[in-house]
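Suppose you are handed a protein chain with no further information: no name, no annotation, nothing but its sequence. What can you learn? This example shows the usual starting point.
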Amino acid sequence: MRFTATDIEGVVIVDLDVISDERGSFSRLHCPDEFAAACHPFTPVQTSLSRNAKARTLRGMHYEAAPHAETKLVRVTRGAIFDVAVDLRPGSPTYLRWTGTELSAANGRALLIGQGMAHGFITLEDDTDVLYQIDRMFEPGHGRGVRWNDPAFGITWPSAPLVISERDGAYLDHQGDD
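A reasonable first move is to predict its three-dimensional structure. Written in structure tokens, the prediction is:
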């Protein structure tokens, strides 16, 4: 695996080292030792799948409130997304800044998103599946969100959403109370 830091500490792009032969290819998706040596100790304990039927489906911007904050590794297994993380850590030099990258089944890229970040994505293709590996068990009642188009973040989305949940559409602008 190849790890590339983004402008936001705690958000890392993870690219695959692909071994190919006449049978096809093989890639390691996660190794705790490689993550610890390269960027961030990360051992997932939960894996989740988000299935999205339509292109331009927006999910986000979500996070778990402390002390239930999560680190997650996000990867696309079918289709493509534009994936975004926003730094919500008060006192961070990149507070309220965002970073984004395209994740697709074709490029095999993943995004490691540390604690204190809001996360969201917009699908770029129909029938897109997004795999999450998360470092803690989900605990209901701690999920939070901020508005996907909050001017405080200034996220440059590749397109406007066509599909968005009522909950995601109703989030308020960030209030700085995290």
